[in-house]
């Protein structure tokens, strides 16, 4: 496994692979790797001749400086995991390699930004779409793999790739979960033992909401029930608990065509202490 820190070295390797007609997949991470990230690597390996993983903690997508300062970092462990997973190349740039002095460009998607994490974390999604655009240009992959736990992010990146004519297929990979169905996240390690026991409530609620919607229950009623269960379980506050379209994140409710509603997803974000957890679940599963 090669490790490079500059665009120049990255592009030299990528160019040599493309000259040999090899197809390239990329997995973008901020480190603190877990099995969810490695599932993206597995998907990339299955589809491509070469796999690139990036590790870059992107300061532009943190709307809270404390969150950035406390983000877990263990690069040596991450590199061991990526090597064991069979990654060919790790791109490990420093901040000034991505945002050199004088950098002043933002890649912003006007659609699908005014809801979910786009509404509750100002500037976050612009930071995501900007850094992903740069990394897609720098790594020049045939395919890029993103976890569906961050479903809004996945849709926005698909839109960026399409709108900017980037020659890359953006592929969503299903969420990986613990045995108790808590969605894997780098932030889970911040949870206390008590909070960790509470955290799977999000999955239980969204799973039950999906079931009740399939049974014909009213959307407003089941969402109200879900909010109460989440808060009664020990979560301090809820940023959102909504049902939205899988295609364009349109808000769905009792007024929605039944078929459209069944093709939607339950989206949730809630706080346990200083840790914000997100998840989503398809109604039709």
TrEMBL record:
Keywords: ATP-binding, Cytoplasm, Ligase, Nucleotide-binding, Pantothenate biosynthesis. This is Pantothenate synthetase. One of its GO terms (cellular component) is cytosol. The keyword Nucleotide-binding applies. Beta-alanine binds at residue 61. InterPro entries: Pantoate_ligase, Pantoate_ligase_C, Rossmann-like_a/b/a_fold. Its EC number is 6.3.2.1. It comes from Kiloniella litopenaei. It catalyses: (R)-pantoate + beta-alanine + ATP = (R)-pantothenate + AMP + diphosphate + H(+). Pathway: Cofactor biosynthesis; (R)-pantothenate biosynthesis; (R)-pantothenate from (R)-pantoate and beta-alanine: step 1/1. SUPFAM superfamilies: Nucleotidylyl transferase. It is found in: Cytoplasm.
């Amino acid at each position: 496994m090669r490790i490079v820190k500059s665009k120049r070295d990255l592009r030299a390797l990528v160019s040599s692979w493309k000259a040999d007609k090899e197809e390239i997949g990329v997995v973008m991470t901020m480190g603190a790797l877990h099995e969810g990230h490695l599932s993206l690597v597995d998907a990339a390996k299955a589809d491509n001749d070469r796999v690139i993983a990036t590790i870059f903690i992107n300061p532009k997508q943190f709307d809270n400086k404390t969150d950035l300062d406390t983000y877990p970092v263990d690069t040596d462990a991450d590199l061991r995991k990526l090597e064991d997973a069979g990654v060919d190349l790790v791109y490990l740039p420093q901040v000034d390699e991505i945002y050199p002095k004088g950098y002043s460009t933002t890649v912003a998607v006007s659609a699908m930004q005014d809801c979910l994490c786009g509404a509750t974390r100002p500037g976050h999604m612009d930071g995501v779409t900007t850094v992903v655009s740069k990394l897609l240009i720098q790594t020049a992959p045939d395919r890029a793999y993103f976890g569906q736990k961050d479903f809004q992010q996945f849709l926005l990146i698909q839109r960026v790739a399409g709108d900017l004519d980037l020659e890359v297929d953006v592929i969503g990979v299903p969420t990986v979960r613990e045995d108790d169905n808590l969605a894997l996240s780098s932030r889970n390690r911040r949870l206390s033992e008590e909070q960790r026991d509470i955290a799977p409530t999000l999955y239980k609620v969204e799973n039950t909401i999906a079931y009740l919607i399939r049974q014909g229950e009213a959307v407003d009623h089941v969402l109200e029930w879900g909010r109460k269960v989440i808060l009664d379980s020990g979560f301090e506050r809820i940023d959102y608990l909504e049902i939205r379209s899988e295609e364009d994140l349109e808000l769905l409710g009792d007024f929605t065509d039944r078929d459209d509603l069944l093709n939607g997803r339950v989206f949730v974000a809630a706080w346990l202490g200083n840790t914000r957890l997100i998840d989503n679940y398809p109604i039709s599963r």
